[in-house]
Specification:
Elements (H helix, E strand, L loop, with lengths): L10 H11 L2 E6 L9 E6 L4 E6 L3 H13 L12 E5 L4 E5 L4 E2 L3 E2 L2 H19 L6 H16 L1 H8 L5 H17 L5 E4 L8 E4 L3 E2 L35 E4 L6 E4 L5 H4 L7 H11 L5 H25 L2 H15 L8
Antiparallel strand pairs: 1-2, 2-3, 3-5, 4-5, 6-9, 7-10, 8-12, 9-11
Helix pairs in contact: 3-8, 4-6, 5-9, 6-9, 9-10
Length: 338
C-alpha cells in the first residue's frame, strides 16, 4: 500500500464479519491512500477471500448498498463483487472478491485494450437498465443533472487561482447548456465513477508502469483478488479472450447515462478513438445528439470539480485531470470528447 500506516480492522467489524463468514485467517489493509478510505482484504478459514468496506459517509453507504441490491446483479456472475452482508450502524459492507487487475495498472496490447473497453461498455449498458427505469429514478436523474449544474459556482469559488476568467466563463456556459438538455438525456442507474481503475481485467497483459495517482503494485483495489502476474503475448498462438469486472459502486445513483462516459472521455479515450469506438460497440448504441452536446459540457463541470477538490486533498491526479480537460476545451477540442 502507498499510504504510510496500515489501518487495523476494528474489532467490531471483525466480529461482525466472522458472524457471517466464520473465522478470518488473514486480514490486510486494502484502503486507498486517503484518510477516508477504509477497506480490508480478508480471508476466511476455508480460503475464500472477501472485502470489508466501511463507507466514508451514510450517503455513500446507501448508494452502494442500493446499487448492489438493485442494479449490480444485472451484470452477471463474476462481473462485479456480490454483497454478502451490510451493517447500516457501522456503514459496513461485506463483499465477495472478483479476480483481475485494474486496467489503469496494465499495459494492454491493442486488441485486449479494445476488448476491455468493449466489455466495459456492455456492462455499463446492463447497469444503466433504462428500459426498467422507475418513475422515481427518472425524476432523481433530472434533479441530479440540475444540481450538478448548480454546483458549478461553488466549485469555481473553491478553485481560486487555478481558474482564469476565461475558464470560469467556459464552465458557466457549459452549466447553462447542460440545463437546456435536461429533458433530452436518457436517465440511468449509473456507476458514477466509471474509469479504468474500477475495471478489473483478467487475461493477456503486460505489467504496466505506474503513472501519478495510480496504485502501487502491491496495493489492491476494493473487491479485487490478488493480481496474478500476466504473461507477455507470445509471438505465435492465440491467447484466450480476457474478461472484465467492475468494482466500487459507492457513487452509483440515478442520473443521465452520459455522466458515466465523462471520466473515460477525460482519460483513456483521449487520443484513442479506437477505445471509444470499442466501448460504444459494446454499449450497443451511439451517443444521441443531446448526449454529444452534453458530454464536453459535463467534462467542463467535472474539471471545475477536480480543481475544487484535488488541491485541498492532495489528489494530484484529480487536479491534473481537471487542468488537462480545461486545456483541451480552451483549445477548441470539444469534438474530441465525443
Amino acid at each position: 500500500m502507498s499510504h504510510g500506516h496500515a489501518k487495523p480492522l476494528p474489532p467490531s467489524l471483525r466480529e461482525w464479519a466472522e458472524r457471517v463468514v466464520g473465522p478470518l485467517s488473514a486480514v490486510q489493509d486494502a484502503s486507498h491512500p486517503r484518510a477516508s478510505s477504509r477497506v480490508w482484504d480478508v480471508t476466511g478459514s476455508r480460503g475464500r477471500r472477501f472485502f470489508i468496506k466501511q463507507s466514508a459517509s451514510a450517503s455513500f453507504y446507501e448508494r452502494e448498498t442500493f446499487g448492489y441490491q438493485s442494479a449490480v446483479p444485472a451484470l452477471g456472475f463474476g462481473r462485479a463483487p456480490r454483497l454478502v452482508e451490510s451493517d447500516a450502524r457501522q456503514l459496513a459492507l461485506l463483499l465477495t472478491a472478483v479476480p483481475g487487475t485494474p486496467v489503469s495498472r496494465l499495459t494492454l496490447p491493442g486488441p485486449e485494450h479494445r476488448s476491455a473497453h468493449r466489455q466495459f461498455g456492455a456492462l455499463l449498458r446492463r447497469l444503466h437498465g433504462t428500459d426498467k427505469m422507475p418513475g422515481a429514478g427518472r425524476r432523481e436523474a433530472r434533479t441530479a443533472l440540475e444540481r450538478l449544474a448548480d454546483d458549478a459556482e461553488t466549485h469555481l469559488a473553491r478553485a481560486t487561482d487555478l481558474m482564469s476568467e476565461s475558464r470560469r466563463a467556459l464552465v458557466r456556459r457549459a452549466a447553462d447548456h447542460v440545463r437546456k438538455l435536461t429533458d433530452l438525456l436518457a436517465p440511468a442507474h449509473i456507476h458514477g465513477d466509471a474509469q479504468e481503475r474500477n475495471a478489473l481485467w483478467t487475461g493477456p497483459a503486460l505489467p504496466g508502469q505506474r503513472t501519478p495517482g495510480q496504485q502501487a503494485p502491491g496495493q489492491r483495489t476494493p473487491g479485487q483478488q490478488a493480481p496474478v502476474r500476466q504473461a507477455p503475448r507470445q509471438a505465435s498462438g492465440r491467447q484466450a479472450p480476457g474478461q472484465l469486472a467492475v468494482i466500487d459502486f459507492e457513487r452509483s445513483r440515478y442520473a443521465p447515462a452520459v455522466q458515466d462516459f465523462v471520466r473515460l472521455a477525460c482519460g483513456p479515450w483521449q487520443g484513442r478513438d479506437d477505445l471509444r469506438a470499442a466501448f460504444f460497440h459494446g454499449y450497443g448504441r451511439p451517443l444521441t445528439d443531446a448526449e454529444r452536446q452534453a458530454l464536453p459540457c459535463l467534462a467542463a463541470l467535472d474539471a471545475a470539480s477536480c480543481l475544487a477538490y484535488g488541491p485541498d486533498h492532495g489528489e494530484h491526479d484529480v487536479t491534473a485531470r481537471g487542468l488537462r480537460t480545461l486545456a483541451r476545451l480552451e483549445n477548441g477540442a470539444w469534438g474530441t470528447f465525443v
